[in-house]
Amino acid sequence: MGILEMFQLNGKNALVTGSSRGLGAAIALALAEAGANVGCHGKGSEDAISGRICQLGKKSFYFSGDIANPDTHASLIEKTIAEFGSIDILVNNAGTIRRAAAATFPQNDWDELIAVNLTAVFRLSQLAGRNMLERGAAGKILNIASLLSFQGGITVPAYAAAKGGVAQLTKALANEWASKGINVNAIAPGYMATDNTATLRSDPNRSRQILERIPAGRWGEPLDIAGAALFLCSSASDYVHGHVMLVDGGWMGR
């Protein structure tokens, strides 16, 4: 197999959660452009990304559901298998964030963030991984971690706790499944220009502080994540297991 062929996903079936916009949309389109059928997910009733994937000549669907609800996890995996015949690639991208001082952080917000950002990642990975194991098939599971998998952040205790858990979960699953041909890895995006960072970007002082520390000198864009995601979802990364890849403009090396 030539090196370029290793990045091709022809015949592969993927699911990308939280793919109606932002990082998830960029990842879903990248996988489709590489040849995969891609199932899309979001909380809203409308989606444009699955339509764009179909225009590329690939199969797609859109599933609307709140992954804080445990019933959604099995439904997403079952829908993917029903539509495509199998699930070969799972990208756990869906996430949410709430900001408040730790001393007054609401319990409901804590519960929601852990459910969406950590519990759903485990349950979806468990269900997809179980299917791959039962089929004896190789597969790729890609989690979206964060700089806060390594750092504590400010006024985001639940998000930091969940993303720290995602990094450790990635390693734990890789330890069990690497020998079975299932790669479990994660991307830790830096400061990206998405909805999750709107509050930071709208604060002139905080935005300036962040940009001054990023060696690349800019906020990241969703397309900056797409190439790393394609690598970790393709045969090019077959010997990469349990890795949390920083895509951060150099932030962590500063």
Description:
- The structure is a single chain.
- The chain is an alpha/beta fold and 254 residues long.
- It has one domain: 3-Layer(aba) Sandwich (Rossmann fold).
- Helix content is 43%, strand content 15%.
- It has 8 helices and 7 strands, in the order βαβαβαβαβαβαααβ.
- It has helices at 22-33, 49-55, 70-84, 107-135, 157-177, 198-201, 204-213, 222-233; strands spanning 13-16, 37-42, 60-64, 89-92, 139-144, 182-189, 244-247.
- The protein has a 7-stranded parallel β-sheet, sandwiched between helices.
- Helix 1 (22-33) links the parallel strand 1 and strand 2 (37-42).
- The longest helix has 29 residues, at 107-135.
- The N and C termini lie far apart (38 Å).
Low-confidence stretches: none
Fourth-tier CATH superfamily name: NAD(P)-binding Rossmann-like Domain
Strand elements, count: 7
Distance between the termini: 38 Å
Side-by-side strand order of the widest sheet: 3-2-1-4-5-6-7
Structural class: alpha/beta
At the first level of CATH, the class is Alpha Beta
Into which percentage range does the β-strand content fall? 5-15%
Gross morphology: globular
**Total domains:** 1
Cα-atom radius of gyration: 17 Å
Query: What would the CATH topology be?
Result: Rossmann fold
| CATH level-two architecture | 3-Layer(aba) Sandwich
The helix-strand sequence is: EHEHEHEHEHEHHHE
